[in-house]
Amino acid sequence: MNRQLSVAIIGAGQIAGGYDVARLSDDEGIYTHAGAYKADGRFRLSTVCDVDAGRAETFREQWGAEKATSSFGCVVGNFHDVVSICTPSDNHFPSVSELIRNRSCKTIFAEKPLAAGLQEMEEIDRLAKKQGINVVVNFQRRFDPSHQAIKSELARDPGRILAVNGFYIKGLEHIGTTMIDTLVFLMGAPQRVLGFNRVFNNAVQQYSYDFALLYEGFTTTVRTVDSPAADYHYHIFEIDLLLADKRVTINDNSRSMETRGLGPYAYGGVKVLDDRNPVREATGYQRSMSGCVDYLYQITTGALPHTVNTPESSCRTGEIVEAVRLSYDLGHPVKIGEPAWKR
After folding, report:
1. Closest by alpha carbon to 69, among 120, 117, 8?
2. pLDDT at 342
3. CATH 3.40.50.720 intervals, the chain
Protein backbone atom coordinates (compact mmCIF):
# COMPACT_ATOMS: atom_id res chain seq x y z
CA MET A 1 0.00 0.00 0.00
CA ASN A 2 1.30 3.47 -0.88
CA ARG A 3 2.36 5.62 2.04
CA GLN A 4 0.39 8.83 2.44
CA LEU A 5 2.49 11.98 2.15
CA SER A 6 1.84 14.93 4.45
CA VAL A 7 0.97 18.21 2.75
CA ALA A 8 0.90 21.85 3.81
CA ILE A 9 -0.86 24.43 1.63
CA ILE A 10 0.21 28.06 2.05
CA GLY A 11 -2.45 30.46 0.83
CA ALA A 12 -6.15 29.51 0.99
CA GLY A 13 -7.39 31.23 -2.16
CA GLN A 14 -8.82 30.15 -5.49
CA ILE A 15 -5.96 28.04 -6.87
CA ALA A 16 -5.46 26.42 -3.46
CA GLY A 17 -9.00 25.06 -3.40
CA GLY A 18 -11.57 27.72 -4.27
CA TYR A 19 -11.96 26.93 -7.96
CA ASP A 20 -12.99 23.36 -7.14
CA VAL A 21 -15.42 24.48 -4.42
CA ALA A 22 -17.13 26.86 -6.86
CA ARG A 23 -16.98 24.79 -10.06
CA LEU A 24 -20.14 23.95 -11.97
CA SER A 25 -21.96 20.77 -10.97
CA ASP A 26 -21.47 19.17 -14.40
CA ASP A 27 -17.75 19.96 -14.52
CA GLU A 28 -15.68 16.92 -13.59
CA GLY A 29 -12.36 18.75 -13.84
CA ILE A 30 -9.84 19.22 -11.04
CA TYR A 31 -8.35 22.71 -10.95
CA THR A 32 -6.75 23.20 -7.53
CA HIS A 33 -4.01 21.89 -5.27
CA ALA A 34 -6.38 20.64 -2.57
CA GLY A 35 -8.74 19.12 -5.14
CA ALA A 36 -5.91 17.19 -6.79
CA TYR A 37 -4.42 15.96 -3.50
CA LYS A 38 -7.84 14.83 -2.30
CA ALA A 39 -8.69 13.04 -5.55
CA ASP A 40 -5.31 11.26 -5.63
CA GLY A 41 -5.71 9.68 -2.20
CA ARG A 42 -1.97 9.28 -1.48
CA PHE A 43 -1.71 12.65 0.26
CA ARG A 44 -2.84 13.77 3.70
CA LEU A 45 -3.69 17.46 4.04
CA SER A 46 -1.96 18.20 7.30
CA THR A 47 -1.82 22.00 7.43
CA VAL A 48 -3.38 24.99 5.71
CA CYS A 49 -1.80 28.39 6.28
CA ASP A 50 -3.20 31.81 5.38
CA VAL A 51 -2.57 35.30 6.79
CA ASP A 52 -6.34 35.49 7.29
CA ALA A 53 -6.99 33.05 10.14
CA GLY A 54 -10.71 32.89 9.36
CA ARG A 55 -10.11 31.98 5.74
CA ALA A 56 -7.61 29.32 6.80
CA GLU A 57 -10.19 27.79 9.15
CA THR A 58 -12.89 27.82 6.46
CA PHE A 59 -10.50 26.10 4.08
CA ARG A 60 -9.66 23.50 6.75
CA GLU A 61 -13.34 22.68 7.19
CA GLN A 62 -14.02 22.52 3.43
CA TRP A 63 -11.12 20.20 2.67
CA GLY A 64 -10.76 18.23 5.90
CA ALA A 65 -7.30 19.52 6.77
CA GLU A 66 -5.94 18.57 10.17
CA LYS A 67 -4.79 22.05 11.20
CA ALA A 68 -5.28 25.69 10.21
CA THR A 69 -2.82 28.45 11.04
CA SER A 70 -2.07 32.06 10.14
CA SER A 71 1.64 31.64 10.95
CA PHE A 72 4.07 30.82 8.13
CA GLY A 73 6.59 29.96 10.84
CA CYS A 74 4.35 27.09 11.87
CA VAL A 75 4.89 25.53 8.43
CA VAL A 76 8.60 26.30 8.26
CA GLY A 77 9.19 24.87 11.74
CA ASN A 78 7.38 21.60 11.10
CA PHE A 79 8.31 19.09 8.42
CA HIS A 80 5.87 18.16 5.64
CA ASP A 81 6.60 15.88 2.70
CA VAL A 82 5.12 18.40 0.25
CA VAL A 83 4.38 22.12 0.59
CA SER A 84 2.15 23.96 -1.91
CA ILE A 85 2.75 27.68 -2.43
CA CYS A 86 -0.54 29.33 -3.46
CA THR A 87 0.16 32.89 -2.32
CA PRO A 88 0.37 36.09 -4.42
CA SER A 89 3.32 36.18 -6.82
CA ASP A 90 5.52 38.60 -4.85
CA ASN A 91 5.49 36.17 -1.92
CA HIS A 92 6.79 33.17 -3.89
CA PHE A 93 10.52 33.86 -3.67
CA PRO A 94 10.75 34.56 0.09
CA SER A 95 8.47 31.62 0.96
CA VAL A 96 10.21 29.09 -1.28
CA SER A 97 13.68 30.28 -0.19
CA GLU A 98 12.87 29.99 3.51
CA LEU A 99 11.34 26.53 3.13
CA ILE A 100 14.47 25.35 1.31
CA ARG A 101 16.93 26.89 3.78
CA ASN A 102 15.12 25.27 6.71
CA ARG A 103 14.69 21.93 4.90
CA SER A 104 11.01 22.04 5.83
CA CYS A 105 9.93 19.54 3.18
CA LYS A 106 11.08 17.19 0.44
CA THR A 107 9.12 18.86 -2.38
CA ILE A 108 7.74 22.34 -3.01
CA PHE A 109 4.86 22.76 -5.47
CA ALA A 110 4.78 26.48 -6.34
CA GLU A 111 2.38 28.53 -8.39
CA LYS A 112 3.85 30.48 -11.27
CA PRO A 113 5.85 32.59 -11.60
CA LEU A 114 8.45 30.99 -9.36
CA ALA A 115 9.91 34.42 -8.53
CA ALA A 116 9.70 38.04 -9.63
CA GLY A 117 12.77 37.97 -11.86
CA LEU A 118 15.45 35.82 -13.41
CA GLN A 119 17.99 36.49 -10.67
CA GLU A 120 15.62 35.23 -7.97
CA MET A 121 14.76 32.14 -10.03
CA GLU A 122 18.46 31.35 -10.43
CA GLU A 123 18.90 31.73 -6.65
CA ILE A 124 16.10 29.23 -5.97
CA ASP A 125 17.63 26.82 -8.48
CA ARG A 126 21.00 27.06 -6.70
CA LEU A 127 19.50 26.64 -3.22
CA ALA A 128 17.28 23.71 -4.22
CA LYS A 129 20.17 21.79 -5.79
CA LYS A 130 22.39 22.46 -2.78
CA GLN A 131 19.75 21.21 -0.30
CA GLY A 132 18.47 18.37 -2.47
CA ILE A 133 14.87 19.64 -2.43
CA ASN A 134 12.50 19.30 -5.40
CA VAL A 135 10.91 22.56 -6.56
CA VAL A 136 8.07 22.05 -9.04
CA VAL A 137 6.35 25.00 -10.74
CA ASN A 138 2.71 24.60 -11.68
CA PHE A 139 2.78 24.69 -15.47
CA GLN A 140 0.21 21.91 -15.62
CA ARG A 141 -0.25 21.77 -19.41
CA ARG A 142 2.98 19.77 -19.55
CA PHE A 143 1.00 16.94 -17.93
CA ASP A 144 -1.87 17.07 -20.43
CA PRO A 145 -1.66 14.13 -22.90
CA SER A 146 -3.13 16.35 -25.66
CA HIS A 147 -0.35 18.92 -25.31
CA GLN A 148 2.22 16.11 -25.11
CA ALA A 149 0.88 14.61 -28.36
CA ILE A 150 1.16 17.96 -30.18
CA LYS A 151 4.70 18.40 -28.88
CA SER A 152 5.69 14.94 -30.19
CA GLU A 153 4.09 15.59 -33.57
CA LEU A 154 5.88 18.93 -34.02
CA ALA A 155 9.21 17.45 -32.91
CA ARG A 156 9.01 14.82 -35.66
CA ASP A 157 8.69 17.46 -38.39
CA PRO A 158 9.15 21.07 -37.18
CA GLY A 159 9.24 22.22 -40.81
CA ARG A 160 5.45 21.73 -40.96
CA ILE A 161 4.90 24.80 -38.76
CA LEU A 162 3.86 27.81 -40.84
CA ALA A 163 2.77 30.21 -38.09
CA VAL A 164 1.46 30.19 -34.52
CA ASN A 165 -0.79 32.69 -32.74
CA GLY A 166 -1.67 33.00 -29.07
CA PHE A 167 -3.98 35.11 -26.89
CA TYR A 168 -3.73 35.76 -23.14
CA ILE A 169 -4.71 38.24 -20.40
CA LYS A 170 -3.61 39.57 -17.01
CA GLY A 171 0.03 40.47 -17.24
CA LEU A 172 3.21 39.16 -18.82
CA GLU A 173 4.48 37.63 -15.58
CA HIS A 174 1.06 36.48 -14.34
CA ILE A 175 -0.54 34.66 -17.32
CA GLY A 176 1.94 35.55 -20.05
CA THR A 177 4.59 33.39 -18.41
CA THR A 178 2.22 30.41 -18.73
CA MET A 179 1.76 31.17 -22.42
CA ILE A 180 5.53 31.36 -22.94
CA ASP A 181 6.16 28.15 -21.02
CA THR A 182 3.49 26.32 -23.03
CA LEU A 183 4.88 27.53 -26.35
CA VAL A 184 8.44 26.58 -25.37
CA PHE A 185 7.16 23.16 -24.28
CA LEU A 186 5.44 22.63 -27.65
CA MET A 187 8.08 24.07 -29.98
CA GLY A 188 11.31 24.68 -28.07
CA ALA A 189 13.00 27.99 -27.31
CA PRO A 190 12.91 30.76 -29.92
CA GLN A 191 16.03 32.32 -31.39
CA ARG A 192 14.89 35.91 -30.90
CA VAL A 193 12.10 37.85 -29.19
CA LEU A 194 10.31 41.04 -30.16
CA GLY A 195 8.05 43.01 -27.81
CA PHE A 196 5.99 45.55 -29.75
CA ASN A 197 3.06 46.79 -27.63
CA ARG A 198 1.92 46.82 -24.01
CA VAL A 199 -1.17 47.58 -21.92
CA PHE A 200 -1.20 48.13 -18.15
CA ASN A 201 -3.51 45.73 -16.32
CA ASN A 202 -4.79 47.26 -13.08
CA ALA A 203 -6.06 43.94 -11.75
CA VAL A 204 -2.55 42.49 -11.45
CA GLN A 205 -0.64 45.81 -11.48
CA GLN A 206 1.65 44.88 -14.36
CA TYR A 207 1.93 45.26 -18.12
CA SER A 208 0.55 42.78 -20.62
CA TYR A 209 2.73 42.76 -23.75
CA ASP A 210 2.12 41.85 -27.36
CA PHE A 211 5.20 40.00 -28.54
CA ALA A 212 6.64 37.68 -31.17
CA LEU A 213 8.85 34.64 -30.66
CA LEU A 214 11.04 34.30 -33.74
CA TYR A 215 12.03 30.77 -34.80
CA GLU A 216 13.92 29.57 -37.82
CA GLY A 217 11.30 29.34 -40.58
CA PHE A 218 8.25 30.68 -38.70
CA THR A 219 7.03 33.25 -36.19
CA THR A 220 4.81 32.89 -33.14
CA THR A 221 2.77 36.00 -32.39
CA VAL A 222 1.17 36.44 -28.97
CA ARG A 223 -1.43 39.13 -28.30
CA THR A 224 -3.12 40.27 -25.12
CA VAL A 225 -6.83 41.05 -25.00
CA ASP A 226 -6.29 43.42 -22.06
CA SER A 227 -7.22 47.00 -22.90
CA PRO A 228 -7.31 50.39 -21.16
CA ALA A 229 -11.13 50.32 -21.34
CA ALA A 230 -11.53 47.98 -18.35
CA ASP A 231 -9.50 46.10 -15.75
CA TYR A 232 -10.93 42.80 -16.97
CA HIS A 233 -13.10 41.62 -19.87
CA TYR A 234 -12.99 37.81 -19.95
CA HIS A 235 -10.44 35.05 -19.52
CA ILE A 236 -8.78 33.74 -22.64
CA PHE A 237 -5.85 31.41 -23.23
CA GLU A 238 -5.72 30.14 -26.81
CA ILE A 239 -3.05 28.79 -29.14
CA ASP A 240 -3.63 28.50 -32.88
CA LEU A 241 -1.12 26.39 -34.84
CA LEU A 242 -1.12 26.69 -38.63
CA LEU A 243 0.66 23.65 -40.08
CA ALA A 244 1.41 22.65 -43.66
CA ASP A 245 -1.51 20.22 -43.83
CA LYS A 246 -3.90 21.31 -41.06
CA ARG A 247 -4.82 23.85 -38.41
CA VAL A 248 -4.92 22.94 -34.71
CA THR A 249 -6.53 25.35 -32.26
CA ILE A 250 -6.30 24.81 -28.49
CA ASN A 251 -9.17 26.84 -27.09
CA ASP A 252 -11.78 27.00 -24.32
CA ASN A 253 -8.94 27.92 -21.93
CA SER A 254 -7.08 24.74 -22.97
CA ARG A 255 -10.03 22.43 -22.34
CA SER A 256 -10.80 21.63 -25.98
CA MET A 257 -9.04 21.28 -29.31
CA GLU A 258 -10.28 21.85 -32.86
CA THR A 259 -8.53 20.38 -35.91
CA ARG A 260 -9.19 21.37 -39.52
CA GLY A 261 -7.58 19.35 -42.30
CA LEU A 262 -7.28 20.33 -45.95
CA GLY A 263 -10.69 20.38 -47.61
CA PRO A 264 -11.91 20.30 -51.20
CA TYR A 265 -10.50 22.85 -53.61
CA ALA A 266 -12.23 26.20 -53.09
CA TYR A 267 -11.91 27.42 -56.67
CA GLY A 268 -9.43 27.20 -59.51
CA GLY A 269 -7.36 24.50 -57.77
CA VAL A 270 -6.74 26.61 -54.64
CA LYS A 271 -6.41 24.52 -51.49
CA VAL A 272 -8.23 25.62 -48.33
CA LEU A 273 -8.72 24.36 -44.81
CA ASP A 274 -11.96 22.47 -44.28
CA ASP A 275 -13.67 24.90 -41.91
CA ARG A 276 -17.03 23.22 -42.50
CA ASN A 277 -16.07 19.94 -40.86
CA PRO A 278 -13.68 20.61 -37.97
CA VAL A 279 -12.90 17.78 -35.56
CA ARG A 280 -13.60 18.87 -31.99
CA GLU A 281 -12.39 16.96 -28.97
CA ALA A 282 -11.67 17.52 -25.30
CA THR A 283 -8.09 17.86 -24.14
CA GLY A 284 -6.79 16.34 -20.93
CA TYR A 285 -6.41 19.75 -19.30
CA GLN A 286 -9.27 19.24 -16.85
CA ARG A 287 -7.34 16.36 -15.25
CA SER A 288 -3.82 17.70 -15.70
CA MET A 289 -3.59 18.77 -12.03
CA SER A 290 -3.99 15.08 -11.20
CA GLY A 291 -0.97 14.41 -13.42
CA CYS A 292 0.91 17.08 -11.49
CA VAL A 293 0.31 15.55 -8.06
CA ASP A 294 1.04 12.05 -9.33
CA TYR A 295 4.41 13.43 -10.45
CA LEU A 296 4.86 15.04 -7.03
CA TYR A 297 4.31 11.66 -5.39
CA GLN A 298 6.81 9.94 -7.69
CA ILE A 299 9.64 12.42 -7.14
CA THR A 300 8.99 12.82 -3.41
CA THR A 301 9.17 9.07 -2.82
CA GLY A 302 12.23 8.74 -5.08
CA ALA A 303 10.48 6.67 -7.75
CA LEU A 304 11.40 9.26 -10.43
CA PRO A 305 14.08 11.93 -10.80
CA HIS A 306 12.83 15.52 -10.92
CA THR A 307 12.97 16.63 -14.57
CA VAL A 308 9.66 18.44 -15.29
CA ASN A 309 8.77 22.05 -14.39
CA THR A 310 12.09 22.57 -12.63
CA PRO A 311 13.53 25.92 -11.48
CA GLU A 312 15.93 25.58 -14.40
CA SER A 313 13.07 25.48 -16.91
CA SER A 314 11.50 28.47 -15.14
CA CYS A 315 14.80 30.30 -15.61
CA ARG A 316 14.53 29.72 -19.37
CA THR A 317 10.99 31.06 -19.35
CA GLY A 318 12.11 33.99 -17.19
CA GLU A 319 14.82 34.81 -19.69
CA ILE A 320 12.20 35.14 -22.44
CA VAL A 321 9.98 37.30 -20.20
CA GLU A 322 12.89 39.66 -19.59
CA ALA A 323 13.75 39.65 -23.31
CA VAL A 324 10.19 40.73 -24.18
CA ARG A 325 10.45 43.74 -21.88
CA LEU A 326 13.95 44.61 -23.06
CA SER A 327 13.00 44.32 -26.72
CA TYR A 328 10.03 46.63 -26.19
CA ASP A 329 12.28 49.22 -24.53
CA LEU A 330 14.95 48.95 -27.24
CA GLY A 331 12.55 48.83 -30.16
CA HIS A 332 14.15 45.85 -31.89
CA PRO A 333 14.40 42.04 -31.50
CA VAL A 334 16.62 40.56 -28.79
CA LYS A 335 18.51 37.29 -29.13
CA ILE A 336 17.77 34.66 -26.51
CA GLY A 337 20.84 33.74 -24.51
CA GLU A 338 22.82 36.75 -25.67
CA PRO A 339 24.73 38.42 -22.80
CA ALA A 340 23.25 41.72 -21.64
CA TRP A 341 26.40 43.68 -22.58
CA LYS A 342 25.98 42.62 -26.24
CA ARG A 343 22.36 43.70 -26.57
Report:
1. 8
2. 35
3. 5-137+289-303
